[in-house]
């Protein structure tokens, strides 16, 4: 009998709209993608393999997964029976606020290692996930969340290193990233992007891909998925969301959405609890 893939999302509106995920996957393969916020997870069963920071990593049971905001990664099973995990996606702004306790305002942490092994921290994260899933007491929820995030940052957070590939025209890449975020629904040509920054189109593709880990068109799709999630949480019709986000039709949205989240937009909208 084929194992069923299960994923349930919750949005903690009282915690800066932090997304919470509980999932079990067997055959799911996530293509390389990015999240607007950080990805912080705990493996509950099985093992996951994922690419981050230029190499592959394996996270087994009790491992803590750490992916920085806007950092390219993928994911698939590393054990025969797949993997089960809990994860949350706090924004850069959440960590920037908390970091005032450590390094001054505006310095969100950089998690150097993709996988950490710390049983006490894993249990603290589990307590947080259980509280956010079961409790409606705002004070209890905020306490569990901020305690876990602060401890995580204290244990593993560092200052982001200066990346050598960003030393070459970082403003150019940042400009294109901002442009794609602002014009995510438009059908933009590579020639147009290159003209905006006065570069050869093929050089721009190499520069952008080397810096961001994805070519411009795939980065634009990631932005579209992020915007689609926000609209799904507002319970907008799927067909309208697809068109508003720049997808040619609903099936086009479905295909790309599932590659990133593991479920379809309809399943996401049905499972989401606020």
UniProtKB/TrEMBL annotation:
Pfam families: AraC_binding, HTH_18
InterPro entries the UniProt entry points to: AraC-bd (IPR003313), AraC_XylS_family_regulators (IPR050204), Homeodomain-like_sf (IPR009057), HTH-like (IPR037923), HTH_AraC (IPR018060), HTH_AraC-typ_CS (IPR018062)
Keywords tagged on the record: Activator, DNA-binding, Transcription, Transcription regulation
Residue ranges that the Swiss-Prot or TrEMBL entry lists as coiled coil: none
Gene3D superfamilies, per database record: Homeodomain-like
Domain HTH araC/xylS-type: 174-271
Keyword Phosphoprotein: no
One MF term in the entry's GO annotations: DNA-binding transcription factor activity
Record has Cytoplasm as a keyword: no
UniProt xrefs under SMART domains: HTH_ARAC
Cross-referenced PANTHER family: HTH-TYPE TRANSCRIPTIONAL ACTIVATOR RHAS-RELATED, TRANSCRIPTIONAL REGULATORY PROTEIN
Name under which the protein is recorded: AraC-type DNA-binding domain-containing protein
